[in-house]
Amino acid sequence: MSVTLLVPTLDEEKALPALIASLGALDPAPLEILLVDGGSNDATIAIAEAAGWRVLSAPRGRAKQINHGVEQAQGEFVCILHADTIPPADMIAVIENTLSDPSIALASFTPVIAGPQGVRWGTTIHNWAKTWYAPLITRPHLFLRGVRLLFGDHAMFFRRQQFLAVGGCTPGDAVMEEADLCVKLAALGRVKMVRRRVRTSDRRIAAWGPLKANWIYFKVGMLWAFGLRGRMARHYPDVR
User: Fold this and answer.
1) 3-235: which CATH topology?
2) Which pLDDT does position 36 carry in this prediction?
3) What pLDDT does residue 207 have?
4) Residue 34 half-sphere exposure, CB side, CA atoms within 13 Å?
5) Do 109 and 195 form a contact (C-beta atoms < 8 A)?
């Protein structure tokens, strides 16, 4: 298989066991699972190593971790998978089938936000809708050229060589690292969200409440849109 699953982490010991079990059931299996850690102070690295994953370290920051991981990846295709996102068993086949179309430069799964209380349908629908409305509002000229904004909990995937050719993620971005990548890769081909679901933890919604969480998602997106990158991270605190 030609797919690297790249998992950027920071203190994810609580989320990793479920992800490890899920990835162990993938059929077919990926070429490799590559965890890129940003300086965890818990058992994240030990858990990943015990699972047989390849582990690298990088400066803290998802953009920097993703860039380093893609540079070191062995697969032709790379999928960025967050530690709290559970993919379907046929994930690898979906990635390979989608990227067999040379017109597609970047794709993702469709996220469903859920937790012990069930599916958070309001946020799930908002996540789906902002793929379209965010670029339409903030970059209408690019929207007309086919730009769509995918986000981390979408489990984005792409060709390694094309990622490197466009310069990868913007290194200084602590959040919204996916947005610039969507714009860059849209210059090379289509951006597509496939109709195959991944399940992402609702831990932020559980911590903040649905209204606050969706307001934060919207606010951070607007800060990115108006070039106020230095303010994004302070409005998007870590939740583990």
Assistant:
1) Spore Coat Polysaccharide Biosynthesis Protein SpsA; Chain A (3.90.550)
2) 98
3) 75
4) 25
5) no
Q: Compute the distance between CA of residue 108 and CA of residue 124 in angstroms, rounded to an integer.
A: 15
What pLDDT is recorded for position 205? Answer: 77
The Cα–Cα gap between 111 and 128 comes to 8
Low-confidence ranges of the chain (pLDDT < 50): none
d(CA 236, CA 174): 9
Pairing type for strands 3-9 and 77-80 reads parallel
Confidence at residue 234, expressed as pLDDT on a 0 to 100 scale: 60
Task: Write the CA distances from 132 to 65, 75, 195, 239, 240, integer angstroms.
Answer: 27, 29, 15, 26, 28
Q: What is the pLDDT of residue 121?
A: 87
pLDDT at 46: 97
Peptide bond into 116 cis (omega under 30): no
Per-residue pLDDT at 88:
96
